Amino acid sequence: MRLRLALPILLLAAAASAAVIDDLDDVSKWTAAPSDGVSLNLAEDHGAMRMDFDFHGHGGWAAARRTVNIDLPANYRFAFRVRGETPPNTLEIKFIDPSGENVWWVRRVAWEFPRYWTEVVADKRNIEFAWGPSPNHVLTKIGAIEVTVTAASGGKGSVWLDRITFDDLPVDASTPLVTASSSIDGQTPDRAMDGRVDTSWRSAAGGAQWLNLDLRNVREFGSLVIQWSAAPRDYDVATSLDENEWTVIRSVKNGNGGRDYLQTPNAAARYVRVNMNGGDSYAIDEISIEPARFGDRIINVYQRMAHDTLRGRYPRGLIGELAYWTIFGVDRDTGAKPLLSEDGAIETPAGFTLEPFVRIDGRLMTWADVSTTQSLEQNSLPLPSTTWHHPKFTLEIAPFGAGKASAPIGYARYRLRNSSAHPERAQFYVAIRPLRVTPPWFELNINELTAPIRSITWTGTELAVDDTRVVPLTKPTSVARRRLIAAIRVNYSIRRQ
């Protein structure tokens, strides 16, 4: 079963105090903007706007745009009423800045439009930067609103829109009160939430320990990030509205310390408690409560992890950098195509990636530590490759497809060569990770921007990654598994070429 993520558009009741932006009685304020080959007609229908569209058997979009002038506060909410009679298609609500070049949006991919009027709410946390040249991805002023139906199933149909409202929401800036079961002199509970990782709270040894956060009022949050310097093997995170009845929302088993990213979708509480099992002395350098949007999609947590670590440890798309990619495979294969990124990561048809790493002189080398070149076999054949260039080695990643279109097989050839003046000892790794080559913002027809892995099993000759077999043709020195991530390692003594 695939993991279902929280959807970015909430179905809730709009606040009674919200200001009406457009009650849709006058459709003339809206402009039809369909893509080529798509028909769209806007009409007033019993006090609402009806969008009649026809994709004429192909893809594209049907968009209705209205000019507005809205200065946004620190926190806000948009709401509108919608219903539809259409095959499943993608609903996009776009917010465009006055320049017309920068776009923010909320989306519902391949949505089963409700047949009856439904209140749809988009909070600030649900609205994401889509595209544009602005380096500042914070939406502060809106020059236009666009409602778009993009083809998923396609076909033709109608969507009704009514009563767009806007509400200024309060910002909760209160500082949580931190208490604990015990503490050592000079390492008090408040040090676990002072914004510094060079200070910490440390508990006394003996018995179960806990750290309690009083958020001052009931708040939504989407994740806890805990930086441990002395971690328990097992611990729970529990929430409460009144500090009497507690609900465990996350449990960590066989933890390894360091920094833990604990996603908490749709969590809301006044009190948050970390319960540490065992009798040792534990220490937290820093704990943070992340906004509710962190719980909406797993990709949000990976992006935070990528920003918190060294550049290169995660794909560049997770830190907002652009990267090219290309497809490869078997001719006439109509299934999902594998991808090769310019950095050498391979996205399998199942979605997960194979990422190369090289350890030399005790240092792990990533795409950020090398320069890369890309080429085609004989400069023309559809066999792409990426080569890493480092003063001590080159690494060529050359994937290709084989077999029949009905049963394709993907191969990846890795060639590690010495480019220094003397022999080198190196370790080569291929990491199997639940990430994609496809960048986080490329989500036109992708519901999941990560590639969830349910199980990884090493049989001694191959990895079973869910229903996909990953077979090393060179016997690995070792295969390490950590939860749902694996790394294949090969030791090399490479001589000068």
Give a quick set of tags describing it.
497 residues, mainly beta, Jelly Rolls, 8-stranded antiparallel β-sheet, 7-stranded antiparallel β-sheet, 1 helix, 34 strands, disordered N terminus
What structural class do the secondary elements suggest? mainly beta
Low-confidence stretches: 1-16
Largest beta-sheet details: 8 strands, antiparallel
Shape: flat
Share in β-strands: over 45%
Total beta strand runs: 34
Average per-residue pLDDT, rounded, comes to 87
Span between termini: 49 Å
**DSSP helical segment count:** 1
Cα-atom Rg, whole angstroms?
A: 26 Å
- What number of domains? 3
Helical content stands at under 10%
Q: How is this structure best described in words?
A:
- The chain is mostly beta strands and 497 residues long.
- The protein folds into three domains: 19-168, Jelly Rolls; 177-296, Sandwich (Jelly Rolls), CATH 2.60.120.260; 316-494, no CATH class.
- Helix content is 2%, strand content 50%.
- The chain is built from one helix and 34 strands.
- It has one helix at 298-308; strands at 19-22, 30-32, 39-45, 48-54, 61-71, 76-85, 89-96, 103-111, 118-123, 128-131, 141-150, 156-168, 177-180, 201-202, 209-230, 235-240, 247-252, 259-276, 283-290, 325-327, 339-341, 346-347, 353-360, 363-365, 371-376, 384-390, 393-404, 407-418, 424-433, 456-458, 463-465, 468-470, 478-482, 485-494.
- The strands form six sheets. Strands 20, 21, 22, 23, 24, 29, 33 and 34 form an eight-stranded antiparallel beta sheet that branches.
- The radius of gyration is 26 Å and the shape is flat.
- The protein starts with 18 loop residues before the first strand and ends with a strand.
- Residues 1-16 have low confidence and may be disordered.
